[in-house]
What we know:
Layout: E1 4-11, H1 18-28, H2 35-66, H3 82-92, H4 109-129, H5 131-141, H6 144-151, H7 154-161, H8 168-176, E2 199-206, E3 209-216, H9 227-230, E4 238-246, H10 262-276, E5 283-288, H11 290-296, H12 300-309, H13 319-333, E6 339-344, H14 351-361
Parallel strand pairs: 1-3, 1-4, 4-5, 5-6
Antiparallel strand pairs: 2-3
Helix pairs in contact: 1-14, 2-4, 2-7, 4-5
Amino acid sequence: MxxxxxxxxxxxxxxNGKSTLVNQLMLMSVGNNESYEIESxxxxxxxxxxxxxxxxxxxxxxxxxxxYKNDFKYFDNYLPFENKxxxxxxxxxxxxxxxxxxxxxxxxxxxxxxKLENKKLLIEDEILxxxxxxxxxxxxxxxxxxxxxxxxNDLFIQYFYTRIEFKFNSLIHLLKNNIDIxxxxxxxxxxxxxxxxxxxxxxxxxKNQEICLVxxxxxxxxxxxxxxxxxxxxxxxxxxxxxxxxxxxxxxTCYEDDDLNRLIDSLECFETTLQKYNQIKNIDxxxxxxxxxxNKCLLKENVNYLKNLFPEMKNCNEINEMKxxxxxxxxxxxxxxxxxNIYYLNSCLNDKEVKEFVNKYF
Length: 362
């Protein structure tokens, strides 16, 4: 049976799971063309992992010290992790006094920074060249509640994402999934994500089909490059369009604009895409991070945030009702009835669910 060439164009805003989905599909591909690339990416990530751990160390120190307040109220959220923070900071520089994050015993910011700077380069060099030391540091951060705390702390997020030399999400995924970083292999590829710059193309083979995956950078600064693919139709491929939306990021803002909500950005991006590129006759939607959405909506404060975002949602009291409301917001933007199918994924990291999606979509 001859293979069918398809071009799957992945659209959507940043941090919605496009790159993770591409990695999963590469691992599922039956061809060998991408084997070298997978191995190369694993080696590259392994080399960069210690830099990520150093980034987390520096981030922890900088966030705590830079945002030092005389009234100490800022540190209330740190109290449950006082011992964990002390453990990590003392690993970073053993001669430091025991740092206590509470009202009367916090060390002055200047003293901390000066002492840390004295041996910063030496310690970083040791971490970079000693995999056992790197693993020990990794284990210090490997605490489910502590990782969750970092993920939900805007100051940490701001620190990590402004340093694009390492993808913070990749390290967090390894921490959450208890990966042994001394033995990283291609099965970990799905955790390795990076900001897509411009247009990234991957050739794979699935279900007896030759497929070209086209991952379009979703950051706002990258979307102007979409027209090269969306306007110039390639007659060598049967083109399909998949717009990906992260439901779980409804309470986060864009990295390029702290005042713009990610879900609103996704909704506006979808509307603009349909209006600007009228050659898109059919488009599929994929809603990701469903499980994260469900878990967040168990908290009243997140539900209130969502209803403030969409005042018309005020009568929706069940989680499924709120999800349906959001899906309908995207349907309403589809004035020319271009949406063909709608898919859902709890997580792009879930191998079983991704396989089920592939069976439905391809």
